[in-house]
């Protein structure tokens, strides 16, 4: 019996509710093997008492039947959520005061559009803002900001973000040789993402907006466990299929103690030239869902041709003057709420 063997065996124990195991999460802090006694020390940060109970049972279920193991002692140190940063390997990004993640349960609901416009509108409040596109498989920041150079590295081998419209921008897309999709999957994708997050020279930012990949899988989890996310904004359309996935996203982030800043209902309606509103994906599904989940509704964004066109042409709609553009105004209102909820410290 040796600690490496025990650690390898514990890779079969998953964090309750997730597909990642407790070893890759960095929760197993120490393994001691003495004659007739194996002691495993685990640290977790959660407010859900079922989590340590389940991990305790699962560790015993894996280790107890091993031959010649003797007595198995599983010690679990449960920390309260605010102390989570140190215990699950999170680290803040140097120079960045606040990190806001923008997430969605499913693709195509306008998550990247909301992330880009929120970043622009936050910058318009006078804050120093960066936007990081963390989507390995479908990066979109290059297109939305009309930038496509390859970034340079500084003397510390950190990538220097590009700049457009007063924002610092970084995207996995800037690093790809061509436009072919990245084919790494699983642990490789997780490792790439972690390295990517840690190796950008953001220098001095009030807010870093992270455009997460769509969905609620390991990559999203890795990101929120790699850096200290101050709040996550969930984007959904009012349609039931999107709401189901938004619910999953809210529950996933709540489980790992990432504060939910609120919900944005995108594609809420289409307003024709005569001013009549058409609720293409249903009416106020996001409003009801926010109430049901007891999370703030940060705003509703209509479907609008200019929003799509400006997104495609590198000048997000939030750059338009809010006084004369309703969609831009809606994004500026969302940004004002976010600034209040996540003040610059
Ligand atoms: P996601 O990041 O959720 O996959 P995107 O932000 O890439 O979604 O949006 C998907 C498509 O829908 C893009 O072409 C985008 O321009 C368009 N889109 C998003 N929100 C709106 C909106 N409110 N009005 C019009 N088009 C939108």
Write a brief caption for the model.
By secondary structure, the protein is α/β, with parallel strands linked by helices. The chain is 35% helix and 23% strand.
Q: Would you mind describing this structure in some detail?
A:
This protein has 345 residues and is an alpha/beta fold. It folds into two domains: 3-85, 2-Layer Sandwich (GMP Synthetase, Chain A, domain 3), CATH 3.30.300; 96-341, 3-Layer(aba) Sandwich (Rossmann fold). Helix content is 35%, strand content 23%. The chain contains twelve helices and twelve strands. It has helices at residues 3-10, 50-63, 84-87, 111-124, 141-145, 172-175, 186-198, 218-226, 240-255, 285-293, 305-312, 326-341, and strands at residues 28-34, 37-45, 71-79, 96-103, 129-133, 162-164, 167-171, 205-211, 231-236, 260-271, 277-278, 297-303. Helix 4 (111-124) packs across helix 12. The longest helix has 16 residues, at 240-255. The chain is globular and about 80 Å long. The structure holds adenosine-5'-diphosphate. Adenosine-5'-diphosphate is lined by residues 104, 107-113, 140, 214, 266-267, 301, 303-304, 307-308, 311.
